[in-house]
Design a protein that fits this description.
With about 425 residues, the protein is of the alpha/beta class. It is about 40% helix and about 15% strand.
Amino acid sequence: MYERNVSQIEEIVKKQNEWRSSTLNLIASENVLSNRARQSMGSDFTHRYAEGHPGERYYQGTELIDEVESRLKKHMKTLFHCRQVDVRPISGTVANDAVFSRFIRPGDVVMVNSTPGGGHISHHRAGSVGKYTTNIVNFPLTADGFHIDVERTIELIRAISPTVLIFGKSLFLFPEPVSELAEICRERNITVLYDGAHVLGLIAGGRFQNPLKEGALLITGSVHKTFFGSQRGIILSNAGENEWRKIDKGAFPGSSSNHHLDTLVPLAITVYEMMEFGQKYAKQVIANAKHLGKKMHELGMKVAGAEFDYTESHQLAVDVTEFGGGDEVARHLKDNNIILNMNLLPFEPLENVTNPAGIRLGVQEMTRFGMKQTEMEVIAELFKKCLIDGRYVGDEVKELRARYQSIHYSFDQSVVEV
């Protein structure tokens, strides 16, 4: 019985590895570890605990993980040009909760991006923010739906006196107006938080925006989307000592105890990869996303943001109402070995959540496997054949994907892992 059951699980793992290596993964919230980082997982650290900070643990036997964590924190500070970093949150949402619990009190007014406007669920009433206040107000948007309307936001801030502004999105095409709203936030002692989960790797690569420099108190994020690390969370800040002590307590013991040491180790390796290759990687990711958007638009698909060159991040949003809606299209594409997700588009009613108008694409993982603008044109053609021409393209996808199996580091020299 034991052998049969375990073998079934092992077979599922084998199928997953084989299947996903033959698909175009365009999920905007996923990425892949390098082989070297991935091979560091499964060590003895898998079994161990390390509560507290390096050198100040509540357990004995942590000297070596203390060294790993200290190195990771040191280089994260260098990479993001910040004074403080906490790497203990085990996900981006846990990092958010650690912070929200310190800065939001019952009754506080908090401004966020709406769900149709791209906001993450942890920013809303059903998520983490909703545990601390119900006074959640959405940022007003410009007519295109993908930008915050700065003038109307300033008017709203004066009218409702929010305590906290939370920038950052799940559907995240363009930078947020942090610098444009920083002055009024300073004048009114409003805390500015920035959820950089999706764009953290682009920030690290210097290709998106610099929220801390622009006026955010801190950045939260996950480190496995455009930042191609293991699945964990992070908090970055230039806060003063008293404020950082408050944030520190939110991370531990506020939201985590032991912090999954087995995934901390590959993140320590990934930060070196990002320091060495992050700028070229981020540049290629954005170039790929823009080019894919342009080509899909030229082939007859309703890609959002055409007037703004489609995107400034790794993501694209496409209105697929004419093909049956986001849920139907995402399922159909999956059957053709193209993996992405349905997504609400700006100004859609929340009732559409089970089959919204849009789909969301992210090019970061395929960029990691060495795809550039030429391959983005091929992918655009595959979308056209599948959605507009009604053809099955699953085999063409497999044929394309078979040529891209190694992680690329340096995109101008085609350095690949060994």
